[in-house]
Structures are given as structure tokens and as C-alpha cells.
């Protein structure tokens, strides 16, 4: 006879074997389950592999690169890919492969800095807007509207023009244009769960609004925001490349991928590798982030639970 | 009970779903025959009752495994039937009424258009004739101003009316069998009675077979003719509705005893003690 | 002195021409230790009354009193110690990302109550769950288990009053019986006062001593549960609800419609 208090309702419910015995175990089980789900999708696995490769290459750049990315060799300019220079050389004789490798650090720097700024700011604005509604919502959303109504690149251009060219200024400029979609997304999520029973329950327990926002609302928005941020990374790379292309991002001789394409424009027709290599790198990394973001959505989407 | 040849004959129906890498058995060997009667399939969540209903119409995704010794609708083998032929049967010869009209009616189409569409999908007639039939059907389900209601959108009608519209839509093609999956669970008690009366009338007037899937034992014992009680994918009891008091299986007895009743107030409701043996009986 | 006193409670939504009055002069008392039921169909306003008491709606007019003290419009911490609520949907009332432990520890943390771990263990045992369930997430629990956690969460602050919003409507019959037994047992043991909202007359007859029947924002009848059975209740709407809960019959469907038309103007 089974204990009436531990009723098993249906085949599709709680498995008692492997029940977590501590909060750490519960968390670990959750993460393990999420990872398994992620790895089941071959495309997002591919994306993850590329991203990990990027991280590895950036971290181990001094060992992966074959030459010094800044050393000029004017006797070896515009050489095609060969055994010595895997991706050829540019107009100053610098090895393109090594420049790509060190350029991955620049790319990662831009992505991480922008995400660190945009994520929390967008979340905060969106969640506060959605939860309180009323004039708070109106003010925040109008500010968001103002930022959104500028085309991203143009606004970034304006900021860089005002602040002066440079990698850090480019990062700030990109961040300023990338936060509104995150805010809107967080606001939409918050609106849909604002009236949920579990929110009402914790309000009835006397929780302050700050506690509710931080511990109850934000964790539910986190999933879609993380997915959106991951997919945004591709766009950030492209915007940075665009700025670099226009000479407003990283300044020479820093090997930034977009700047490399810009510089290679002049010799593009005879020396395809000047443009094709950095272009392929940008495309590969953007695609990888998109695929990975897709996989993340399947794992993190609360609707599937 | 009924001298007609059985409308539906199901023997040893089994349905499994793939869930996270493993196979989950939702239905494990269900057999029954349906004549021109009201048959109830009753069970709790996870018992497999809705799965049976959907399996009859082959509404499950391709990844589901459905098998049976036979699943016959008259002369047609529903298991072996190709998809084109199934489309002819669905909605035309076997219909399904679902639980909540909020979700089962198309929100952007007028109600009358949806009913007419159900008819036009299976009969080549003029739009005018389809409209006439729609209005006739709306009257048959006791909607008082059929012309006005036909022009409404689903969000403009109340729950009970929505469900009657659903019934109209599903019966306009004059099917032989109707499968109703919890048709009144989302309705208020007062409305429920009227919707059931409408269904009752239509089923008896047209001599249909009705499969009534529900979790409400109290409701089916007075509405239906026969009851099948399902537990964990199997039928544990098949009994006439009038004889439910004399149910044999401990699960059925337990369910009946656990219902709180206005007339019989007890300090403590007897709790159903699940026996492992029921899973294999 | 009544534990809960509701006096001419009125509530409207919207302004001017679009104003929709959902509660009309609702008044009733609940004695200490009593279980009081509010029954009605959708749109009757029964859940709205509960939410006014719980501080979710603040623009009501009238008087709400808990144990002699009038309730203000806004929800303050003191009210949280006096009354708590159990919600209908066990799948929606627990935060999907919080373990049972987090859900139970939170109210204690908010009110600065120490000794959380021991209290959590104690309350889990009280609602009939093994203490190892602390580390589970809601999706690892069955419907009945979630509802037990919801009840534990409501009781951990030791309120005197429990507001129950259709606590068993979303549960299977067998699980419902267990939860109803648990609720009856807890009330007896802890001396709680219940205000139970439901559309199911069987449930209210089982758990409650007195029942108020609501229709379209008004209380149309107030009876003892014992009076629901046997001799037919006097009020036609109540009678209809009782008979419909018993069984379905063609005659009742016809009469029911007629009765409804008669009371609709009340």
C-alpha cells in the first residue's frame, strides 16, 4: 500500500529516484538537464563549438598566431596565402592570420563590454517599466522610443564623432543603441507575469517591490533576455565592424576585423584575401552566436516547462 | 442494449509517446465497442482518456506509436487508413467537440463563417446553401437569434453559446460518431445543463454514437448510458451508468467514495489508496 | 466578535459610462474558527471579495474588519500576519524558478523571523510532505504536492485566517479528497478561520458550516450547509445549484432555464 501523501498522479510526474537532497544538488541537476537539452541540438552545438574556439583562440593568441600582428615587412606586402603566411599579408606586409587571431580579442572585448552594459540596463528599465506601469512606464518607454528611432549606426556615428574615434568610444556608442530592444523585451515579459498568482502570493506576504523585482520578476525575464543578448552579439560584431570600416572604431594599428576589411577595400580586386578572410571570420562568428542563441532559447524558454 | 451493428470497434489499442528519449505508454490495451449510445470514458489526469479520443481520429503527431488489434469504423480500418481518407472522415463522419470554445474557435473569423466552412470542407455546395444550413444548425442548437449570432466573433459570445456553436460546427456535416472531450468542463453549472440537453437531443434525434470523455464521474452517471473507467492507460471498469453504485473495481469504488457530496456530509473523505496491482490488472 | 466582517462592500471598475459594478453591497460575518463558503458561478464576484480582503483591489468602498480592526486600503505587513491566501492553480501559484525551500523561507525572511530551517521542516510535516521535498522545484512535484506546498507557504506565517480561492478545482478527484481532508484537519488543529470560495457545492458542503450564494455581485442567499441537502433550499438559484451538483436531467435543464430567467432580474 502506498503512502497516501506521496501520491503519484500520472506517469508524467516527479521521479522520486534522484530527488535532490540539497539546494546545491537541485541547482546542479537543473544545469545538467539544461546542458543535455542544449547538446541535443546539432546546430547549436556547432555554434557553441565555434564560440569556444573563438574564446580559446583569443586566450591563447600569442601561441596560436604565427607572426607578430603589428610587425611590418615591406618586402612581403600583398602576398597571397602560402605555407608561410596562411592567410597572406596585407599592404604593410603584416600577417593576416595573426591579425585575425589578435583581432578576436578585440571582438570579444567589444561583445562582452557591450553586453555587460546593455543587459543590466535594459533589464532594469524594462522590468521597472512593466511592473509599475503608470507614469513610470510612460517616461521610460518614451525615452526608449527616442533611442530606438535613431538608426543604430547613425547614432553610434554621432556619438563617436562627438567623443572622438577609438575602441572604447565605439563600445559606448554601440551600447547606447543596443539597450532599447532588451528593455522592451523585459517589459513585455514583465507585463505578462505581473498578475501571476505567485507574484500576488509574495505581495501578500508583504514583500517590498524591490524584492519582488529582483527575486521574482527578473529571473523569469532572464531567459528571453539572455537569448536576445546572445543573438544581439552578432549584430554588435557587425556594427563594430561597420564603425571600424568607417574608421571610427578601433584605430590602426589595432587589428580589428572591420577595420581590416576597410583597409583591404583598395586592393580587393587583386588581393581577395585581404577582405575575404576577415569577412569570413565575421560571418562565422555571427552565425555561431545566432545558432547558439537559438539553442539557448529551447533550453531556457520557461513556456516549455 | 442496441441491436444495430457496432459503429466503432476497438480492440487492444496502444498509444506511446516519445518523451525525452524514452517511450511513455499513454494507452495500454484499451478495447471497447460503440453503438448508437452515449458512452463515457472517465478518468483522472494521465489516465489516457483524451489520448484514446484523439487516437481514434489519428490526431497525434507522427512520432506517436499507435497500434491495435483492430480499430474499425464500420468497414474502414482506421489504423491503416491513408491520411487523405482520414481527412474525409474527420469532421464529416466522426467529429470532435473540444473543451474550451475560447481556444477551439478561430478568433478572427465570424462564427457563421466557421460553421459554413466546416460544411463546405466536405460538401460541394453554393455559399448560399451553406449559409442556410448554418442558420438551420444554429436553430437546432437552440440559439435564439441565429442571424445575429452568426455575424458575431468568438470573443463576443458567452461560454455556453460558444460551446453550442462548437456543437453546431461539429454536427452540421451529420457525422455518425461524435467524440466530446470534456465539453462542459469550462462552463458554469447552469449553462452546463443546457448545453448537455442540446447535445442529448441532437444525439438521440440523429441516432449518433457519442463518446463523452470527462473526469466528472457524477456528471456521466446521469448523462451517459455506459461508462468506461480508465486508470493508467487501461480500462479498469466497463459498466452501465445506472449500475455505477454496484461498481466492482476498487478504483471506481474509491473514486465514487472520494467525491464530496451535498447530501452525504462526512467528517473525513475516504482517500483513494492506490494499489500497484491496478497497473497490471 | 466576528473574525471577518464585511460591511456593504462595493466595487466598480472603469469610469463613467463604461463603469462596471462587480460588487453590490456585499455584507457577511465570519466567526472565529468558522469555515464560511462563498459559492457562485463565474462573474458572481466571489473571488473579487477575496481579493479585496487580500489587498489586491484598493478602490472598494464599505468596511472590512479583521478581528475588530478595520482594514486600510493598502496592504501592510501587519495584514500579512493575519491572513493568507491559497490560490486555485497549483501550477501557477509557485514560482517556477524557486525551490520549495526558497518559497517557504521567503515570508520568514521578509518578516525577520529566525529559525527558518526548523520552521520549514515543521510546516512540511504538518502538510504531509517529506522534508526532503525542500530541494525540489515545482515542476518536480505533482498537482497535489504543489497545493500542499502552497498551503504550507500560507501557514508558515501563522495567520489566523486562510482565504481559499477554489483550492481544489484544478485537482483530480482523488487528490481533491486528500487536500480537503488536510484543510479540515488543519482548521481543527490550529483553530483557523476559513473563507472558502468555490463553484463546487460538494466541496463547500464538506468543509463549511455556512454558505453565502452570490450571483452577479450580490449575495442572494445565506444558508447553513446542512440546509443544502434534504429539504430543498428556498431560494430558486440555490436550489438550482444544488440540484445541478447532484446529477443531470432533461427536466432540470428545462426548468433550470426558466428559473434562471426568473432570478436574473434579482
Which tags fit this structure?
heterotrimer; B: 281 residues; alpha/beta; Rossmann fold; six-stranded mixed beta sheet; five-stranded antiparallel beta sheet; 34% helix; C: 266 residues; four-stranded antiparallel beta sheet; 9 helices; globular; disordered C terminus
What does this structure look like?
The complex is a heterotrimer of chains A (305), B (281) and C (266). Chain A has 305 residues and is mainly alpha-helical. Helix content of chain A is 69%, strand content 0%. In chain A, helix 4 runs parallel beside helix 7, helix 6 crosses helix 7 and helix 7 runs antiparallel to helix 9. The longest helix of chain A is centred in the middle third of the chain and has 37 residues. Chain A is globular, with a radius of gyration of 24 Å. The N terminus of chain A is likely disordered. By secondary structure, chain B is an alpha/beta fold. Chain B has a domain of 173 residues: P-loop containing nucleotide triphosphate hydrolases (Rossmann fold), CATH 3.40.50.300. In chain B, 34% of the residues lie in helices and 24% in strands. Chain B is built from ten helices and eleven strands. In chain B, helix 4 crosses helix 5. The longest helix of chain B has 18 residues. The radius of gyration of chain B is 19 Å and the shape is globular. The mean pLDDT of chain B is 89. With 266 residues, chain C is of the alpha/beta class. Helix content of chain C is 37%, strand content 24%. In chain C, the strands form two sheets. Chain C has a six-stranded mixed beta sheet with strand order 6-7-8-3-9-10, with helices on both faces. In chain C, a hairpin with a 6-residue loop joins strand 1 and strand 2. In chain C, helix 5 packs parallel to helix 6 and helix 8 runs antiparallel to helix 9. Chain C is globular. Chain C starts with a strand and ends with a helix. At the B-C interface, helix 8, helix 9 and helix 10 of B face helix 6, helix 7, helix 8 and helix 9 of C. Chain C: It holds the Pfam family ABC_tran. Chain C: It catalyses: glutathione(out) + ATP + H2O = glutathione(in) + ADP + phosphate + H(+). Chain C: GO terms for molecular function: ATP binding.
